[in-house]
Amino acid sequence: MNRFYSNAVNGFKKVSHVIFDVDGLLIDSEKIYRKAISEIARNHGKQYTIDIQAKIVGTPERESSRIAVTEMKLPISVDEFQKLFRKISYLYLSSVPLLAGAERIVRHFHSSNVPIAVATSSNEDAFRIKMQNHQELFSLFNHIVCGGTDPHVKAGKPHPDIFLVCASRFPEKPSPEQCLVFEDSHNGVLAAKSANMQCVMVPDERLTDEYRKDATVVLSTLHDFKPELFGLPPLN
Question: Among residues 64, 94, 124, which one ends one of the domains?
Answer without folding.
Answer: 94
